[in-house]
Amino acid sequence: MRDVAALAGVSLKTVSRVVNREPGVSGDLISKVERAASQLDYRHDLTASNLRRSDRKTSTFGLIIEDVSNPFFSAVHRGIEEVARERGVAVFAASVDESPEREKDLVVAFSQRRVDAIIMTPTVREQSYLAYERRGGLVLVFVDREPRGFDADCVVTDNAAGAETATAHLLAQGHELVAFVGDDETITTANQRYLGYERAMASAATSIRPELVSREAHTTPAATREVLALLDAPNPPTAIFAAQNLITMGAVRALQMRGLQHSVALVGFDDFSMADALDPAVTVVAQDPREIGRRAAQLAFARIEDPDLPTSVHVVPSSLIRRGSGEIPPGR
């Protein structure tokens, strides 16, 4: 750092303020320091800097999500990074894989590394165990699912309303045999989406047939197996509501395997890559995961700046995108 200061012709304190992104430094001085640092191939030692900082901030966030490879959570991650990058904060992500034990282990791991905030999708049945971390100054924000037994900021989609819209759309095409293919009943969002399905069926005075309900499709291969079983049943559905993006992918595969992609209607919850390029293109209720991530990061920074802010739940609306698969009439 001394070499950077000498080359830039500024004080050591000025270099420190620039590399630590402190306010009140002129643009001209920032440019001088950055040019000198580049010429000397200087890399700021964040660990040493963090030890000296009085506020003990590390300029890092931990992100705990269901699966980093899931396109929905990848987009959430991207939204968080967009906001964090503007503040010079790095985001470290990990998959919880719907494991309560792993969730708790990851919280401890990130806490021990002194992250400034954890943004997470909860898996444990209730989150009261996080009170200890909060007392230690850790900021906690939830995405996709609201916490239980723990009051905290949260960003979600109105899952029930979106699922009701999807199911009502299929019913409006004239379908009565509408199947529901969803995730495990222990998952909050899966229950909310089933509730939306129930509401739409009740509003249309259409009975739910238990044999057309599957709630064990957590992965794409599992969804394919479940949908194949529905299609091969004596009274198969004429329409399917797939309540999660990986489930929709599995449903598409099953319909193609039976040659029924142009005969059985399909609406999925969550958009996914290439959904608009399939034949037929897949009608979906699209969330906005990038915006969910951005709002979560903004809440985390606001909480860091003012720990006494009242907690809030932000609902990001979903939208029905008609592409063709959801508009197939019964008996086609």
Describe the structure in your own words.
The protein is α/β, with parallel strands linked by helices and 332 residues long. It has three domains: 2-44, 434 Repressor (Amino-terminal Domain) (Orthogonal Bundle); 60-157 and 293-317, Rossmann fold (3-Layer(aba) Sandwich); 159-288 and 320-327, Response regulator (Rossmann fold, 3-Layer(aba) Sandwich), CATH 3.40.50. The chain is 42% helix and 16% strand. The strands form two sheets. It has a six-stranded parallel sheet, sandwiched between helices. Strands 7-6-8-9-10-12 form a six-stranded mixed sheet, with helices on both faces. Strand 6 (178-181), helix 9 and strand 7 (213-214) form a beta-alpha-beta unit. Helix 1 packs across helix 3, helix 5 runs parallel beside helix 12 (289-305) and helix 8 (159-172) runs parallel beside helix 9. The termini are far apart.
How is the secondary structure organized here?
Blueprint: H1 2-8, H2 12-19, H3 27-39, H4 46-52, E1 60-65, H5 71-86, E2 90-95, H6 100-112, E3 117-120, H7 131-135, E4 139-143, E5 153-157, H8 159-172, E6 178-181, H9 188-203, E7 213-214, H10 220-231, E8 239-242, H11 245-257, E9 265-269, E10 283-286, H12 289-305, E11 313-316, E12 319-321
Parallel strand pairs: 1-2, 1-3, 3-4, 4-5, 5-11, 6-7, 6-8, 8-9, 9-10
Antiparallel strand pairs: 10-12
Helix pairs in contact: 1-3, 5-12, 8-9, 10-11
What's this, in brief?
The protein contains 12 helices and 12 strands.
